[in-house]
Amino acid sequence: MCGTNGEEGGPQGDGAPADEQAQFSALLEDSAEDLYEHAPCGYLSTQLDGRIARVNATLLGWLGHRRADLVGRKYFSDLLTVGGRLYHETHFAPLLRMQGEISGIALELKAADGSRLPVLVTSTVKTGSDGQPLLIRTTIFDARDRRAYETELLRARQEADQERDRLRTLATTLQATLLPPALANVPGLDVSAYYHPASLDEIGGDFYDLFPLAAGTWGLFLGDVCGKGAAAAAVTSLARYTLRAAAVYDPDPTAVLGNLNTVLNHEYNGSDPRFCTVVFGLLTPEPERGGFRVTLSSGGHPPALLMRADGTADFLHTPGGQLIGVLPDAYIATTTLLLAPGDTLLLHTDGLTEAHTSAAAGSAGGGGERYGDDALLDFGRTLAPTTASDTISAVRDLLDTFGTGVDDDTALLAIHVPPPTDEEQRSPSN
Length: 430
Known about the structure:
- The protein is of the alpha+beta class.
- It is built from 13 helices and 15 strands.
- The model is unreliable at about 1-15 and about 360-365 (pLDDT under 50).
């Protein structure tokens, strides 16, 4: 056996020694007056006009006032800051009279030394047996820790906002360096381009350019690097530099993309492979036939949209073209066409066709239907015949209708051969 009852818990039989029970009983005998005076919050009683009738020691200690300085001499509003006094007169007091109680109001009290004490105030109107108001009882909680927390939270938020703005500016600046400041002026050709970022906080991997090569020849390209951020920007920079350099060495579109494929496959064939879709083209004037001969080579890129002068529209399919950078010897698909007077050619990245329609943009998880190639073809048929600038303007408006449904960057490059003017048509050919 473990022992007698007395040995286990003493004569009380409840497991507590007699002296501990006595101490606990003494604690319970604290007077109501002592509990009021030294409560962990401030207590204040005022007459209906706000004159202070009673205040506990806790609040006096917080404010550094003597009891005789406040009781019968000051009003509750005298303890408030100028702004708090205005709020008390216009909101606090009227609501208290209407409702009989108001709680959790953030105010600031003035201490005797001029400092400010942030507090949370709850006031209740005490009524007599006849329902008539007698006095106002106010409970005041020290909110210094809460104010410090809120201040720190606000400071952290401001720093986060500043950092986000800095990163956004950095991303925008870096994005601008990945695009040409201006497209080359091609005589006899109307050219327009646009870049639509899906997010201002991330650097996209879409790119385009139009630049002169040998006399009477211009090169163009438009592409989309997988991924976003700094890694994608590095690949984009490498791709743009390689395409321009390769075109100078050998402007044949298939050879240009082949060079880019070799470079990307060599540089990014490890644990973090990088690839892109690209279309590269050559523009050569055709004075006798009118317009420009366009040779396009594609490495896994969406087909360009041709909008003709007669109002028809079709895709320039380059089937079989493989992603650039994935395989050592990627297959490059090539097509050639005559861009006749009045025709417009639109090159785009898949951010356009893979955008969610406006009806689906609000769906959870970005679900819903994609815009798709068929819709883009119908869109082109409604535009044709058109110009480069009108095409870019129309597609920009289209992207705006998608709103948040555009979840990937979109690059656009449109080229248009203006039809001859009446004067040019009347002039004899050379």
